[in-house]
Amino acid sequence: MHRILWLVVAVAFVVGMVIPDGAEVEECSARDTRVVAPYAVTGYWVIPRADRCVTRRMAEAVHAIGGDTLITFGPRFAAGLDPGFDACLVDGRNCAEVPRTEIRQVYTYVSSEEFGPSMLRCPGLDRRIVGEGRIFYRVSLAETCDAPVHDLVIVATDGDGLGNLMTEAAAYGMTVFPGLPAAPQLAGKPWEPDHAHTAALNAFTARVLADYRERFKGLASFGGVYQSFELAVRARSEQDPIVRLYAAQHAVVASVLPGKKIVVSPYIDARRGRGFPPSQVEEGLADIAGTRAGLPMAVAVQDGRGTGKVPVYGVHEADAKVAPRLVPVVGDVSNAQGYYGSTRDYVEAAARRVPDGVELWVNVEGFEPTPAPGECGRVEPLPLRGRTTKSRLDQQVMAAGPFAAKVISYGWDPFFTCQARYDTPSLADDIAAGWEQPIIVGAYRKELNGRAGVLVEGHNLRGGTLRFAPEGVGEVVVAQEGYSRGRLESAWAPYVPSGSWTSITATNATGHSSTSPYTIR
């Protein structure tokens, strides 16, 4: 299917063209709401676009391959004013200067959305300003408009990308989780929030969410919010600075948006000497869940394969060499020498005790740690990242196992849309072409009607065969259809494994085979 390939070319053209003043902008093409290639990954991080038609085509492309969830990063809430805001002027003065008013602290916020009238609370002080083709907002964080001292937030935006995203997602039956304002980072320790500004962050978060509550109240696409400040899903104390940030900001969400879901995507790091073992994940998950302030929460554990922090390998491959794309990260060593465990080990540990009110999702990283020659990927911001393959993505879905309530991926643009050349397929194109390939996510021995066999769970298993390969000898048996659990299907086959390891490959009724075998002992 080349519709997604066409989308990428069209986006590049729309973004790059210049519309003369007074020219009439054409209406967007009609929506195509079909799901033609429902893949196992059902959510993606996306970038809000000010162009409504570009947003529509992006939402359509994600929806076409089974995506029903869109997540955005929250902009950084930053202390201080930089030259990028020089065009924000009120009566010839920089908008951070307010006559006869004491300004204690100025914050900046570069966003892709246009706020509604409810954001502007104090007449004359809170303003919407247009300068040099950009829209600015000046917002006071004081408790009352006549307070003697004010903290100001100057917001700059290039258009209503988030509003476009919400509208299009609603039309496609999708859910959006916009990012919460991201906390200022501590100088010298950018991995920690600067709590000197937490009160101001919370005040601004409350204003933004109140605006969302008003603007998006009629849209079913508004599912909740995404917590943009990252942390590792390992054991932490209650005084941990990121846990404190989560607790404070999530309390604001609960107050302003009761019932809405919070999505958090913590990372795991399996590198020996730098990371932590799977045994810490269970307690780390509980620490994160403790910040949800009574709201439903989805914890989408980053699988770590894209950054090289966690490998994807089978239960029989601990002593095998790491994948070539991981050598620049941990060296030319075995999996066991370089890492505490695989993605499967960490996800399985997280699934042992999922706290009440929490769903376990898995965020499969849709990129490679570094780009290979001739390969497209991310050029900026650094670090450089490369494009992965559909078969590698299948392996990550396999590693997520049957434990994940949902599999999502970072990130749609550029990793799923970039092309090495204009006439070569993107990763999204490869998914559209190969979505029917089975993916086995779990298998175990199970007796059925007195016969020994193996029960297999996964995607696209129906009506086919399972090939078991002990010690290199293959046998094909017909799979009997079992049950469906969510999007997972099951198949049982009579078989008695005769070797120490048994690899299983599925071929379904459409003739498509799994890109990687699943191995059990």
What this model shows, in words?
It holds the Pfam family DUF4434. The protein is α/β, with parallel strands linked by helices. Among the domains are: 230 residues, Alpha-Beta Barrel (TIM Barrel), CATH 3.20.20; 81 residues, Immunoglobulin-like, CATH 2.60.40. The protein has an 8-stranded parallel β-sheet. A hairpin with a 2-residue loop joins strand 4 and strand 5. The radius of gyration is 25 Å and the shape is elongated.
Q: What value does the average pLDDT take?
A: 91
Main β-sheet, spatial strand arrangement: 10-2-1-19-16-15-14-13
Judged by helices, strands and strand pairing, the structural class is alpha/beta
CATH architecture of the domain at 43-67 and 230-434: Alpha-Beta Barrel
End-to-end span in angstroms? 38 Å
Rounded Rg: 25 Å
CATH topology of the domain at 43-67 and 230-434: TIM Barrel
Q: Could you give a short account of the major beta sheet?
A: 8 strands, parallel
Task: Estimate the helix proportion, in percent.
Answer: 10-25%
**Beta-strand content bin:** 15-25%
Q: Uncertain regions: pLDDT < 50 for 5+ in a row?
A: 1-25
Question: How many alpha or pi helices?
Answer: 12
Protein name: DUF4434 domain-containing protein
InterPro entries: DUF4434
Domain DUF4434: 160-416
List its traits.
single chain; disordered N terminus; DUF4434 domain-containing protein; 521 residues; alpha/beta; Immunoglobulin-like; 5-stranded mixed beta sheet; DUF4434; 8-stranded parallel beta sheet
